[in-house]
């Protein structure tokens, strides 16, 4: 008995409907990437191991899929190393390549390798799959797409302004109105830690602050104490716990709180420029909100930090995020190349659009017209009509065999075909075709010599 087929855990098959919906999101994003002047690049699905390893921390290294060397991959391993069962030492001997973990490190490698061929500032977008040897669970996969837009080679804050506008344009076009784009700045977080006297506990302070909306002020204070942050420091940070009101009002509070921190004040100034510029330009449908608890990738980002939340009432984690990094390419020897980038969470955006019923109704309409097959002579005339319709850009097909009418109509229904064309003996003699409207009901007869009349009604 044949073994039942399966796919690896953490991977997915996508139905035609799912692919259409994913491509719809991709196409909207690509359109706006190009309108904003971003250029597409692609990098290989696998990189040299040395390119990826050591760039994501110990946890990231553990999640990188390694590719075994071809041929007899154990021939470089001596008996002593093999017997030691040291997986780290052994891996370097039997694997020289690995599947990419994200798009950012390969992008940095690309910029360094092609620095003499590209024009700076370089604006690139990239939509490709990545792989992570993570434990599969709901919403977490081992193979998934990332959708990134980055600018490298400029430290201008106008790039941050533009990326917020890009988020706004894409989500507005997707009809996903009312998303909240949260903003913070790494320098502000560092400044807060400095003025409360806990500079060396920046990470502990920020991790606790990030939980404010989940565990409240008392919970955050308790966690900070457990991490060794003093009561005096917590009291100094108290204004942050109740930070609310307009963005400019919050900036005033932060400016006062951080007046003795050069780095913190610089962060407030950067945030103020972004907020004031965007208020002057206006956004189409997104909300802009300062969130001092936002600290995604704190060790990675050096300036602005972005995160996008779904509209109110939708239970979903972030659907996008990014930030400013001052030395992305430094890991490959090209120093002081500043960059800023954002990503779109494709899978989560898909789920939100599905939940809110925002995909276009016709997105699953893979076929507009189906010609019923009544036999060889009728099929030949139908094929001539099919050719003319296809040249006019109509998605059209002929059922391949003269099966029972009931079977052909069932096929049309299953494919959500809005129009079914009938060419039988009577239509052959009158040089005409009949069109059944599968949505509204009823039918209409058209002359084969006046196809434009049917096209006008499509």
From TrEMBL:
Q: Coding gene?
A: hisS
The similarity comment for this entry is: Belongs to the class-II aminoacyl-tRNA synthetase family.
Which NCBIfam families is this protein grouped with? hisS (TIGR00442)
Which SUPFAM superfamilies does the record cross-reference, listed alphabetically? Class II aaRS ABD-related, Class II aaRS and biotin synthetases
Question: What EC number(s) does the entry state?
Answer: 6.1.1.21
InterPro entries xrefs: aa-tRNA-synth_II (IPR006195), aa-tRNA-synth_II/BPL/LPL (IPR045864), Anticodon-bd (IPR004154), Anticodon-bd_dom_sf (IPR036621), His-tRNA-ligase (IPR015807), HisRS-like_core (IPR041715), HisRS/HisZ (IPR004516), HisRS_anticodon (IPR033656)
- List residues of the Aminoacyl-transfer RNA synthetases class-II family profile domain: 1-400
Keyword Ligase found? yes
Report keywords, A-Z.
Aminoacyl-tRNA synthetase, ATP-binding, Cytoplasm, Ligase, Nucleotide-binding, Protein biosynthesis
Q: Which GO molecular function entries does the Swiss-Prot or TrEMBL record give? A: histidine-tRNA ligase activity
Residues folding into a coiled coil are none
Source domain of life is Bacteria
Q: Subunit structure of this entry? A: Homodimer.
List the catalytic activities from the record: tRNA(His) + L-histidine + ATP = L-histidyl-tRNA(His) + AMP + diphosphate + H(+)
Instruction: List locations, semicolon-separated.
Output: Cytoplasm
Which named protein is this? Histidine--tRNA ligase
PANTHER family named in the record: HISTIDINE--TRNA LIGASE (PTHR11476:SF7), HISTIDYL-TRNA SYNTHETASE (PTHR11476)
């Amino acid at each position: 008995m044949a073994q039942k087929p399966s796919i690896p855990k953490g991977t997915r098959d996508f139905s035609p409907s799912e692919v259409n919906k994913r491509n719809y999101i991709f196409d909207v994003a690509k359109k706006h990437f190009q309108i904003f002047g971003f250029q597409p690049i692609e990098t290989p699905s696998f990189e040299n191991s040395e390119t990826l390893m050591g760039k994501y921390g110990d946890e990231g290294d553990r999640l990188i899929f390694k590719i075994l060397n071809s041929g007899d991959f154990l021939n470089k391993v001596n008996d002593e190393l093999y017997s030691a069962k040291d997986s780290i030492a052994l891996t370097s001997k039997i694997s020289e390549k690995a599947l990419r973990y994200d798009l950012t490190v390969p992008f940095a490698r690309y910029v360094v390798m092609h620095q003499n061929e590209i024009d700076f500032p370089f604006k690139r977008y990239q939509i490709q799959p990545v792989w992570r040897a993570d434990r599969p669970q709901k919403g977490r996969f081992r193979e998934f797409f990332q959708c990134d837009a980055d600018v490298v080679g400029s430290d201008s804050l106008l790039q941050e302004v533009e990326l917020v506008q890009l988020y706004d344009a894409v989500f507005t076009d997707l009809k996903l109105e009312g998303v909240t784009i949260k903003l913070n700045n790494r320098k502000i977080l560092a400044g807060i830690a400095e003025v409360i006297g806990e500079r060396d506990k920046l990470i502990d302070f920020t991790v606790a602050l990030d939980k404010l909306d989940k565990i409240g002020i008392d919970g955050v204070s308790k966690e900070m104490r457990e991490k060794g942050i003093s009561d005096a420091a917590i009291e100094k940070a108290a204004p942050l716990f109740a930070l609310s009101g307009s963005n400019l009002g919050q900036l005033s509070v932060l400016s006062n709180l951080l007046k003795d921190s050069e780095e913190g004040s610089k962060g407030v100034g950067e945030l103020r420029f972004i907020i004031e510029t965007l208020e002057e330009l206006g956004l189409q449908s997104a909300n802009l909100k300062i969130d001092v608890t936002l600290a995604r990738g704190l060790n990675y980002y050096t300036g602005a930090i972005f995160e996008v939340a779904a509209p109110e009432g939708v239970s979903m984690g972030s659907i996008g995020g990014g930030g400013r990094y001052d030395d992305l390419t430094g890991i490959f020897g090209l120093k002081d190349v500043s960059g800023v980038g954002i990503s779109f969470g494709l899978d989560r955006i898909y789920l939100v659009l599905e939940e809110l019923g925002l995909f276009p109704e016709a997105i699953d309409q893979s076929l507009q017209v189906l010609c019923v097959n009544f036999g060889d002579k009728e099929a030949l005339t139908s094929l001539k009509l099919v050719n003319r319709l296809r040249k006019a850009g109509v998605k059209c097909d002929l059922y391949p065999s003269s099966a029972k009418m009931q079977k052909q109509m069932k096929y049309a229904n299953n494919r959500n075909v809005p129009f079914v064309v009938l060419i039988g003996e009577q239509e052959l003699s009158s040089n005409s075709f009949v069109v059944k409207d599968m949505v509204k009901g009823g039918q209409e007869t058209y002359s084969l010599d006046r196809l434009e009349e049917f096209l006008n009604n499509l």
